Amino acid sequence: MTSSISDWIWSERFWLPENVTWADLEQPPPGVEYPRIRHILYALPLAVIVFLLRLLFERLVAKPCAHILQIQSGVPRQAQSNAVLEKVFQSKACPDARQLEGLSKQLDWDERKIQRWFRVRRNQDRPSVQKKFCESMWRLTFYLGIFIYGIRHLWVSPWMWDTRKCWYNYPFQHQSSEQFIYYTAELAFYWSLMFSQFIDVKRKDFIIMLVHHLATIFLITFSYANNMLRVGTLVMCVHDASDIFLEAAKLANYAKYQRLCDGLFVVFSISFFFTRLVIYPFWVVYSVLVESWEIVGPYQSWWLLNGLLLVLQTLHIIWFYLITRIAIKAIFKGKVSKDDRSDVESSSDEEIYSSSSKTPSQTLKPRNISHTGNLNGGAHDH
Fold this sequence. Notes:
- By secondary structure, the protein is mainly alpha-helical.
- It is built from 16 helices and no strands.
- α10 (177-197) packs across α12.
- The longest helix is centred in the last third of the chain and has 38 residues, at 258-295.
- The protein is elongated, with a radius of gyration of 24 Å.
- 34% of the residues are buried.
């Protein structure tokens, strides 16, 4: 039974082009190394090391930087102890008008007082600005470091300048040590992000980011398993580029350098456009979709890979639409909208949560980055 399941999962007809078997990849020529799926498992213990490095970095580097910039951790106001309201909060953090009316009668409290209790309680669970600053500084450091590593490797790789070379002699292509390090580092980073989501304070986009991290892990592992390392490194490098400016903009925002934040966000928008809507579709996706068809020919996993890359491109278009709206506001109004997934609510937010007639765009407030939290990851699908 176990053997038949394994044969089904690792079906040669799914993973490999016609007339290629796993046995053909078992004995590479002298001096040549092919990817082995068991090797990518090293990313799991490495993810634990990456997570520990993150904790050390945040404590020894990011937090002192936050103190220098006078970004305080702050202690959120504690909501008054109330078992009834706490029980409701655990099921619904933002009660509707009908629930507010029922709670008001049950507790003999004014509805506005109940709204205020829920607002304070929600703020208790939100990470401080200092914590978000430390998280963004860690991501910026990783993205910058891995991008420099990746571009150094790709700059001297012939397939960067001629993408048809991604497919010559496929899948019998040598795996270099640089490719292995690049892949395991990226995969370990995303495993660490997925693990840390369950430890960190949960945010509004918890499910979205969890799905994103899982999808990214799947795509990296998938491309490694069938030796699409050349095109895989191109995809990762293209996506890392714009994320650097996103995290830098968020750091400027948390430090209250608003003009710098706006400028960096505009640079992020431009880099996102060129990397995700120009280079990615017309260089990378074109190579996987057209050049590989001409050189290798389609097979089952080829269809799946192209489908995932095209879905990713669709997400890029949607994200760029949202980014453009924010960038235009930054250019013409001199401010970038709020990151509404985790910032502390003000007292005026009571009206927002109690009104069902307002649209999401009406609830945005100035002075912070909007939607960029969702682009963290979203902008980094591979």
